[in-house]
Specification:
Blueprint (H helix, E strand, L loop, with lengths): L3 H15 L4 H8 L3 H8 L7 H10 L6 E2 L4 H7 L10 E4 L14 E4 L12 H10 L9 E2 L3 H4 L11 H16 L5 H19 L6 H10 L5 H19 L7 H12 L23 E2 L4 H17 L3 H15 L6 H8 L1 H6 L12 H14 L3 H17 L5 H7 L1
Parallel strand pairs: 2-3, 4-5
Antiparallel strand pairs: 1-3
Protein name: Fic family protein
InterPro entries: Fido, Fido-like_dom_sf, Lambda_DNA-bd_dom_sf
GO molecular function: DNA binding
Length: 403
């Protein structure tokens, strides 16, 4: 019987070769030595579960696992020692199939259709090249006040203007489409947003595990508490987003919900008073709390003036993360707050599900270090189009009530 690890390694090799992914990029993204990657792809190397999972992540296939278990469970399942229970693995790519019968476990790995993959614009490719340099060798960069001071709502646009308009129409039309159970779409969005947000912070759990944790509302560990807190925060936005003004208080309340079981009370929703650093970046956020408060007020004031909800969401997503106003939880807060203008406009909300973690990180670093939104534009557009497909009809009843 073929071992599960060998089956999955064969699947990864096929996917990598078919899509022309280089050994070098896999090594960079997975943290594995290039020689080891080459040996694995050639079928010559011995490897353990942790190495195989790193290879999956490096190939951008982590989200292609239709999740039924956590990475910890995968490590046990894929261990080189003979498993005590049989497993069944369904792997699909161009006819490649590898199966083992299982009594209680079913893992399915699939690849997104090629036409659904993210196609980078030339500007994004150039930014990737600029960020390919080791972070220690990239030039230091401070917070750029001019990125806010020079922005004129409804005159300037971070997104290409035609794209912002197109996505706004798409988001409103899809949200209003008739759907037999819009509340189910709402539940699906809350679950997937919360899970995706935790995943982008490198928390490891399956979507099925996440659903059980949210349904039980009884988190035991930090990653579980993070999941439930993200769910509470996005529920607050979905419930009150149309009523409450887009303000600093709304942002701070969102941070309180996100971090309520993860930080000391004195840090919840409060401007940090200590310096912080962004991992693997030479970006230096603002230091003084009064300066941070001033910029946070300006971010919210500018976003509230933006008429296009997609541009407003994109603006908040980048600038809340860029400001790093809180001691922790800034990127989580940026994803929650980005949905406020979408909710106000009855547009499809954005869950950030299925985004490649490396691509997301590069989108943030490009803006942090260079003020360049090129990668962020492509990531956001791709993610929003996916959300528009997944949550069609989410505001169906809301639109009927308004009409």
């Amino acid at each position: 019987m073929v071992k599960t690890t060998d089956d999955i390694a064969a699947f990864v090799r096929t996917f990598i070769h078919k899509n022309g992914i280089s050994e070098e990029s896999i090594a960079v993204q997975s943290g594995l030595e290039q020689a080891l990657v080459r040996s694995i792809l050639a079928g010559r190397a011995d490897y353990d579960a942790r190495t195989l999972i790193a290879l999956l992540n490096g190939a951008g296939l982590e989200m292609c696992i239709i999740p039924k278990m956590s990475s910890q469970t995968l490590e046990i399942l894929f261990a080189s020692t003979k498993p005590t229970v049989k497993t069944r693995v369904d792997i699909a790519v161009d006819g490649l199939r590898a199966q083992e019968e299982a009594s209680n476990t079913h893992i399915e790995i699939s690849v997104m259709k090629k036409e659904e993959s993210l196609n980078w614009r030339p500007a994004a490719e150039m930014l990737f090249t600029a960020l390919a340099q080791p972070w220690e060798k990239r030039p230091a960069s401070k917070y750029r006040l001019e990125l806010l001071a020079q922005y004129r709502p409804n005159v300037d646009s971070l997104l290409p203007q035609g794209l912002a308009d197109e996505l706004a129409v798409l988001g409103e039309e899809r949200a209003a489409q008739e759907f037999f159970m819009p509340t189910r779409q709402m539940e699906k969005f809350v679950l997937e947003f919360s899970w995706a947000s935790c995943r982008l912070e490198r928390e490891k759990m399956s979507l099925e595990e996440a659903k059980k944790i949210i349904d039980d509302d009884a988190p035991r560990w930090r990653d579980e508490a993070s999941l439930v807190s993200n769910a509470d925060a996005i529920k607050m936005v979905m419930q009150y987003g149309r009523e409450w003004p887009l303000s600093v208080d709304f942002v701070r309340n969102s941070h309180v919900q996100i971090m309520k079981d993860l930080l000391a009370t004195r840090h919840l929703g409060r401007t940090r008073t200590i310096d912080i650093h962004v991992a693997k970046s030479r970006f230096m956020p603002l230091c003084r709390a009064p300066d941070i408060d001033e910029m946070l007020e300006l971010v919210c004031a500018l976003a509230a003036e933006i008429k296009n909800p997609i541009e407003a969401a994109f603006f908040l997503w980048l600038h809340i993360a860029y400001l790093q106003a809180f001691i922790e939880g800034n990127t989580q807060a940026s994803r929650v707050v980005a949905n406020i203008p979408l909710v106000k406009a009855c547009c499809i909300p954005i869950s950030f599900i299925e985004i490649n973690i490396h691509d997301y990180t590069m989108a943030m670093l490009g803006f942090y270090e260079l003020g360049d939104v090129s990668v962020a534009v492509d990531v956001f557009e791709w993610s929003y189009r996916r959300s528009a497909e997944r949550y069609t009809g989410i505001w169906h009843l809301g639109h009927k009530a308004r009409s």
